[in-house]
Amino acid sequence: MTSMLLYDTTLRDGAQGEHINFSAEDKMKIALRLDDMGFHYIEGGWPGANPKDTAFFEAARSITFKNAKLAAFGSTCRPGMKPGDDPLLKALAASEAPVITLFGKTWDLHIERIMENTLEENLRMIRESVAWFVSLGREVIYDAEHFFDGYKDNGEYALETLTAAWEGGAEVLVLCDTNGGSLPHEIETVMEDVKVWLGDRFSGDARPIKLGIHAHNDASLAVANTITAVRCGAVMVQGTINGYGERCGNADLTSIIPVMQLKMDVDCMSPERLARMKSLSRFVSETANVPPLNSRPFVGKSAFAHKGGAHVSAVLKEPRGYEHMVPELVGNERRVIMSDYSGKSNVTYKAREMGIDMEGVDSREVVSEIKRLEQEGYQFEAAEGSFRLLVERMAGRFKPRFQLKNFRVTVEKDKDRHCRSHAVVHIDTPFGEEMSAASGDGPVSALDNALRKALECFYPRDMAHMQLVDYKVRVLDGSGGTASKVRVLIDSRDPDTIWSTIGVSEDIIEASWQALADSFHYKLGSSEI
Predict the structure, then answer these.
(1) Does residue 445 share a domain with residue 381?
(2) Cα atoms in the 13 Å half-sphere on the side-chain side of 430
């Protein structure tokens, strides 16, 4: 079993993604999580380039990482300047990071036409910058920026830049597909050429030549290109959690690591840590305030979801028939989705998964009812809470903790163009009637507040732990204009779980009430009467 060095650049390259803005505190939380997962290198940012990165490295001085080495990222010295005189390089040294990741120019296009530098001076900058940090006792990783594009235009010079970095004392030479446009077969060809070139020139060197790969996803091939490089002998992979990064992102480590560990016999993460991969993905997503991508391979909510009835029937008999791996290996789980594509197997599996007693329930009747309701616009694949309530109602086991007598909603707008909604809810419960009024930022917010206020009289503990976290509206058919049917999905949560409920109507308030009422019914389903 070969081994692989994992280099995470979520805190620097990932932070360059659109809509991602980590604070120094966010970076530290993620860094500690990555260290706990066993990553070998964590790139914290570019100290001296911005206050947040500088603050992160200042805070990191008091942190002892158990598994990872902290890397500070920066460029080679500027033209005509010695490394020890360059303020940016001195800031890198002052970070006290044990690893320095330097990027240098490889592509003659950048050197001559953009930087307006000479090819010879660029080689000096690379060689001397690497050597200066080595003289300070730092481990240096060299990122050959735009290497594959540079190789295509001027292969001999691109290789000379690697020679300069290696002569300076770099520990790993990382080949970067910075524009993200290379294809796997091109990665393979270039990797082989690089190995031959370096092998010929440094065959007597005591240091083993180590190559790495840093791929961007502009052609949707970052993972494929990374895996190709690994097959060609790369010993370090660089990437980000969830593939976050500039433009279309970086190589996604939540895919690369499982592929290497589970499918390529490459040792990079222990089974215990790999089983926390989905949790890591969600943690970084929440910290970045970016919604998780359901379709993300391995760790996405839909990665092991089954919708077609024939598929579900087969999965019940032999999961391997429709799943390329066991979901639990990466901390995920198998999901069966209820929809108009469902069969009896979907209902049976879903009921078992949710702990629903199917005694006295005909699965075929449930399937028929689901298909009828989905014809009206319901969508149970996104509303598993409502699916549970549907089965319980059909089984005659549904015990409502409250029943609506009536509600009223009003919306007021004043001369300053401020809107305020008010709701009055009248309910009946096994303990008696209750009428409550409340305001909200919108009619649904007002209804939520009024219903919650009424139920608090009878179920104070349940109401204290439950909250609405998301509200979505979709027009199902716009041909009716403002009278079109709408679907409302509501996500609610308590400390232990999240559930979704649905409502459909031509009236958006009625659809919202259906979803809202079901959400409270779901929560109160375990309450004692």
Answers:
(1) no
(2) 8
Instruction: Give the largest CA-CA distance in the chain.
Output: 89
Can you name the residues that pair with 45 across neighbouring β-strands?
Answer: 72
Residue 410 in domain: yes
- Flag whether 282 is in a domain: no
User: For residue 379, what are the domain limits?
Assistant: 305-394
CA-based angle 144:148:153, to the nearest 5?
110
Tell me the per-residue pLDDT of 359-368, one tens digit each, with 9 for 90 and over.
767 777 877 8
The single residue listed with the structure tokens 């509501």 is: 490
Task: Report how far Cα 317 is from the mean position of its chain's Cα atoms.
Answer: 31
CB 67 within 8 A of CB 31: no
Write the DSSP symbol of residue 469: E
3-state secondary structure of 23: coil
What digits encode the pLDDT tens for the residues 420-456? 899 999 999 989 999 999 999 889 999 999 999 999 9
Query: Is residue 421 a contact partner of residue 410, using CB atoms and an 8 Å limit?
Result: yes
User: Is-contact 361 290, C-beta < 8 A?
Assistant: no
Order of strands across the sheet that contains 419-429 = 403-413, 419-429, 432-440
CA distances from 11 to 14, 67, 225, 273 (A): 6, 17, 22, 20
| pTM for this predicted structure | 0.70
